[in-house]
């Protein structure tokens, strides 16, 4: 992230964003031009007590957060008086349960990646609840979402269920935990975007769903109040920072939805693609709840100005991770960055396809038994072909998901904006544009997730007047336009579809 060093301390304020990611927390100060004026970051630890289990220490998260807030303010000699409002962007689904009398967590945070509750999700499906859960929450029953994680804590932590039934325990995703603590336990809320990732929230009625709560045996008294993503929920009560200043906490939004907003995808058909370890594709479907026949999920993008905006979401498990594999396991590159230069040493992949189904395939294939394959190898296949085919596989997977989105929604993509580490690869972005047959825009200097939370926190307190003012903050973008012959594109994508079939079912036991 680039920090604008030229600005002067602005007594009339910054928006402070607390961005709580999966592996680090950050505090970022934005000025009125939407420029980053100060930033501090700290890594947070993850624990793996058993294979497939992932936890974090909720207290460590808070102390890291306090540290980065202090550091970001001190760097530019700002104080709480210079903060117009605070916005929170957070890793989603991660589940924390705490005692409301002591404020102490009863268990570590169970992180979104944790698979320990897969059997609880399977049981919901076995009980025939799949369709009901999908139509109410927009999600497919899965260990990923918060609901099964809450149930696990109540069933496995000694005394937890009893306390919960007595109304002594509170649940929150990371946003809720942060807001609760920085308001000294005065505010127990979440926003629509985070609520819609719990698998307990009815996205049609915009209420916690008593029926699903009953199926999972989760007392409603534990749940936070669900609010808009942009409004004043309460005030900062960290004495070390706030002193006597009244600093409003004015936005909360899940990280992927935050980046949709930060990327200016305000209108129906606007989409963003984040190329990180995995890849997240979100499309704004405005006020329409689009249910998917292709295994995508429906979530709430944000609640703003008395209205809820929905989105369709698809994810790809392995995107940048395939480039890491080339680097760390295959030693074909020293640095992810080199993949671009080496891929473009060949004019094409020489008929070679890499399908990086390391952990199965997600939407629209949904085959947990699929495994990685490389097909089309000849005596002429080189390192460059394999690297190129690996990069191309990211673009093909994105195309698979976007085709499913178009089919489900009947919408065309109006704008496609990209971000994340691997979006810096020009070859990949050009190939992506060729495959999507659409312009792909990569903004310069946008950390979209934090920007989205900043916009929403700024709007809530009039720091930015309205959406038009936000639109005027849209910075420059590098644009990649489709340039491939349609026949060539069709042939390549046909090859991909053939290659994917070879990956299907590989890990299934043969009779
Ligand atoms: P995350 O937030 O998931 O940690 P990042 O957005 O930081 O991910 O992106 C890191 C990922 O992007 C890594 O998997 C890395 O291999 C990949 N990556 C980074 N730069 C490039 C590049 N120039 N070309 C291809 N992949 C890249």
Observed structural traits:
511 residues, six-stranded mixed β-sheet, 23 strands, binds adenosine-5'-diphosphate
Task: Give structural notes.
The protein has helices spanning about 60-75, 120-125, 130-135, 145-155, 160-165, 175-180, 190-195, 210-215, 240, 255-260, 320-330, 340-345, 385-410, 425-435, 450-460, 465-470, 485-505; strands at about 15-20, 25-30, 35-45, 55, 85-90, 95-100, 110, 170, 190, 200, 205-210, 225, 230-235, 250-255, 270-275, 280-285, 295-305, 305-315, 355, 375, 415-420, 440-445, 475-480. Helices cover about 35% and strands about 20% of the residues. β15 (about 270-275) and β16 (about 280-285) form a beta hairpin. The chain is globular and about 70 Å long. It has about 500 residues and is α+β, with helices and mostly antiparallel strands. The strands form 8 sheets. It has a 6-stranded mixed sheet, sandwiched between helices. The protein has a 5-stranded mixed sheet with strand order 17-18-16-15-21. A two-stranded antiparallel sheet has the order 4-7. Adenosine-5'-diphosphate binds next to α11 and α12.
């Amino acid at each position: 992230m680039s920090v604008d060093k030229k600005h002067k301390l602005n007594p009339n304020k910054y928006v402070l964003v607390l961005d709580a990611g999966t592996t680090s927390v950050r505090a970022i100060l934005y000025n009125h031009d939407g420029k980053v004026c100060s930033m501090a970051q700290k890594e947070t630890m993850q624990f793996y007590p058993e294979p497939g289990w992932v936890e974090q220490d909720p207290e460590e998260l808070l102390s890291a957060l306090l540290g980065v807030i202090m550091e970001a303010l001190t760097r530019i000699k700002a104080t709480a008086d210079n903060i117009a409002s605070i916005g929170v962007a957070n890793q989603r689904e991660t589940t924390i349960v705490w005692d409301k009398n002591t404020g102490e967590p009863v268990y570590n945070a169970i992180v979104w990646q944790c698979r320990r509750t897969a059997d609880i999700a399977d049981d919901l499906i076995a009980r025939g609840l799949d369709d009901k859960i999908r139509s109410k929450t927009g999600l497919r029953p899965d260990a990923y979402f918060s609901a099964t994680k809450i149930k696990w804590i109540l069933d496995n932590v000694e005394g937890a269920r009893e306390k919960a039934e007595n109304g002594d325990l509170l649940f929150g995703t990371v946003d809720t935990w942060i807001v609760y603590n920085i308001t000294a336990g005065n505010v127990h809320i979440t926003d629509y975007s985070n609520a819609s990732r719990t698998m307990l929230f009815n996205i049609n009625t915009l209420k916690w769903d008593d029926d699903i709560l009953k199926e999972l045996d989760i007392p409603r008294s534990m749940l936070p109040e669900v609010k808009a993503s942009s409004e004043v929920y309460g005030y900062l009560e960290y004495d070390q920072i706030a002193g006597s200043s009244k600093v409003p906490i004015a936005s909360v939004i899940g990280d992927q939805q935050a980046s949709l907003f930060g990327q200016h995808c305000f209108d129906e058909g606007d989409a963003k693609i984040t190329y990180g370890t995995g890849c997240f594709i979100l499309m704004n479907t405005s006020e329409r709840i689009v249910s998917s026949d292709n295994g995508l999920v429906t979530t709430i993008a944000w609640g703003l100005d008395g209205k809820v905006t929905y989105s369709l979401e698809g994810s790809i498990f392995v995107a940048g991770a395939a480039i890491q594999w080339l680097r760390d396991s295959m030693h074909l590159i020293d640095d992810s960055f080199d993949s671009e230069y080496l891929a473009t040493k060949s004019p094409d992949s020489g008929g070679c396809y890499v399908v990086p189904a390391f952990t199965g395939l997600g939407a629209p294939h949904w085959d947990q038994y699929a495994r990685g394959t490389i097909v089309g190898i000849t005596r002429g296949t080189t390192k460059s072909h394999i690297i190129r085919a690996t990069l191309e596989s990211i673009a093909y997977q994105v195309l698979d998901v976007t085709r499913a989105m178009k089919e489900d929604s009947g919408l065309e993509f109006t704008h496609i904006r990209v971000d994340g580490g691997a979006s810096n690869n020009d070859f990949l972005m050009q190939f992506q544009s060729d495959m999507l047959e659409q312009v792909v825009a990569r903004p310069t200097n946008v950390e979209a997730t934090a920007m989205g939370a900043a916009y929403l926190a700024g709007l809530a307190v009039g720091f930015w007047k309205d959406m038009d003012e936000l639109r005027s903050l849209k910075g420059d973008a590098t644009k990649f336009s489709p340039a491939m012959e349609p026949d060539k594109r069709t042939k390549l994508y046909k090859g991909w579809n053939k290659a994917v079939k070879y990956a299907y079912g590989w890990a299934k036991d043969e009779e």
